[in-house]
Design brief:
mainly alpha, 9 helices, 90% helix
Length: 503
């Protein structure tokens, strides 16, 4: 509202008073004209008298209307309105000099009650008494008997007292209404401010979950690559086991056929070189895997901190919403008290009762909205707590994966040592062909060890691949949870925006 309640009511009463003045003029004109047509007026009362009075009344009404157009918010306008009606009533009594016209002065007193100002009401009553006394001095034939005159003035005084009491009570009621209205506006502004804060926090929550979702998807893709690398390692280990078995058979054939020993040694040398390359590639892959696991673990720890921070923010939001709910309850109580006061005021408080009912409805809507926000915040807290639990499970899986990778790294170290043994054995065979038969059994035993290591490497790679697959599933679950959290943040932002729009 652009004005406070008292000022707005005063301005509206100006126009109500103007309507009263116009209505009084119309009724007087109809009454006097009817009396004239019926032939019950004096000989001095003519059409010209009626016309002159109507022109005079129109001028007074025009002046009042112009003043209202330019000075409607001025305090002195209510005094002008009362005096304008008094002038019209007194002029009517002058042109229609009968005792009964004195009752029209009560209309002026009643109109003064529109402004709920005891000073104006007492002034109006005093003005009626003084104006009547002056009129009786100039028109003594209107003067009633002494007892009737005393009763008339006593009635004016009694009306002044009653009107004054009514004005005081109504004025206090209007002041109370203004105070309650200001309190309701302040509560509404605070509610809107809290809704804006919730909307901003929800937007920040949505941004955070978007970033978490991007990082999680990147981690998910990294796990897919790790799984693919592990599968390649397993395939290489299987190939290596097959090759070592072939080498073992070659050793047996070499011992049986010395004539083909040269070609077999060359083949074994190539296989040893190939084996060294495979071991080197496998070790490089394991190094990459270790680095990726470390980065993923660090990212997961950062994710845990972000989600825990998100949980803390959600709890803070819940506290803020609880405060808003309390404010809404208090506003509802204030509206109920205002409705009770309006009911006590009767007809004078009917308009304020409507305002109190609207305030109560706004309080109920605010309470309903805060209840919905509380539910959403509860869902957010539940999802964030579930996410934290799953992240802790994910950390445990990362720890197990890191241990498996360390074991795989140790296996690669052992394989590398075996590869060096193979290379040394091949060199010895190349330079000491005569001792080949004697050392054949030893070479065969070394090949068997290599085959065993290859099988262990293949088994470990399969275990790591299974762990990576489980990790990928866990990451997918976390992606789904983060999406759900993001949807809840969007819903929270929408609800806060709806609260601002409702405000």
């Amino acid at each position: 509202m652009s004005h406070n309640l008292m000022q707005q009511n005063t301005i509206e009463n100006h126009y109500r008073a103007l309507k009263v003045i116009i209505g009084v003029v119309i009724l007087i004109a109809i009454g006097t004209t009817g009396t004239f047509i019926a032939g019950k007026t004096s000989d001095n009362f003519t059409i010209f008298t009626i016309t002159s009075w109507l022109v005079f009344s129109a001028v007074i009404i025009g002046i009042v209307f112009i003043l209202l157009r330019f000075f409607e918010s001025k305090v002195w306008m209510k005094w002008i309105m009362v005096m304008a009606l008094m002038i019209l009533v007194m002029s009517c009594r002058v042109i229609s000099p009968v005792i009964e016209t004195v009752s029209m002065m009560y209309i002026v007193v009643i109109m003064s009650l529109l402004y709920f100002d005891i000073r104006l009401t007492l002034f109006t009553c005093a003005l009626c008494i003084v104006s009547d006394w002056i009129l009786l001095q100039f028109m003594p034939f209107l003067k009633p008997a002494t007892n009737a005159l005393v009763i008339r003035y006593f009635t004016f005084i009694f009306a002044a007292v009653a009107a004054g009491i009514g004005s005081i009570a109504t004025h206090r009621l209007m002041l109370l209404a203004e105070t309650r209205e200001k309190a309701a506006q302040e509560a509404g502004a605070k509610l809107q401010n809290e809704a804006t804060i919730i909307e901003k926090n929800a937007a920040a929550l949505s941004d955070t979950t978007s970033r978490i979702l991007e990082v999680t998807r990147a981690n998910q893709e990294s796990f897919r690559q790790i799984d693919s690398s592990i599968e390649e390692i397993a395939a290489t280990a299987s190939t290596q086991a097959t090759e070592t078995e072939n080498t073992s058979r070659t050793i047996h054939e070499m011992m049986e056929a010395l004539n083909n020993i040269g070609s077999n040694i060359s083949t074994m040398s190539q296989l040893a070189a190939r084996f060294a390359e495979i071991v080197k590639a496998g070790r490089n892959s394991m190094d990459l895997q270790i680095t990726a696991v470390q980065k993923t673990s660090q990212t997961n720890q950062a994710t845990t901190q972000v989600v825990e921070h998100l949980n803390d923010q959600s709890m803070e939001i819940s506290k803020i919403v609880s405060t808003i709910s309390q404010i809404a309850d208090q506003t509802g109580l204030l509206a109920l008290n205002a409705a009770i006061e309006a009911a006590r005021a009767g007809e004078a408080g009917r308009g304020f009762a409507v305002v109190a009912e609207e305030v109560r409805k706004l309080a109920d809507q605010a309470a309903e909205a805060t209840g919905l926000i509380n539910k959403i915040i509860s869902d957010v807290l539940e999802n964030t707590q579930e996410t934290v639990s799953k992240i802790h499970e994910l950390n445990q899986a990362f720890q197990e994966q890191a241990e498996a990778v360390e074991q795989s790294s140790e296996l690669f170290n052992e394989i590398e040592e075996h590869a060096l043994v193979i290379e040394g054995s091949v060199n010895e065979i190349s330079t000491m062909i005569e001792e080949m038969i004697a050392s054949g059994e030893q070479v065969d035993m070394s090949i068997q060890h290599i085959s065993t290591g290859s099988q262990q490497l293949a088994a470990s790679s399969q275990e790591i691949s299974a762990i990576a697959a489980e990790q990928s599933k866990a990451m997918q679950t976390m992606v789904d949870d983060i999406k759900a959290l993001q949807d809840l943040a969007a819903e929270l932002s929408r609800q806060a925006a709806d609260m601002n729009v409702a405000k």
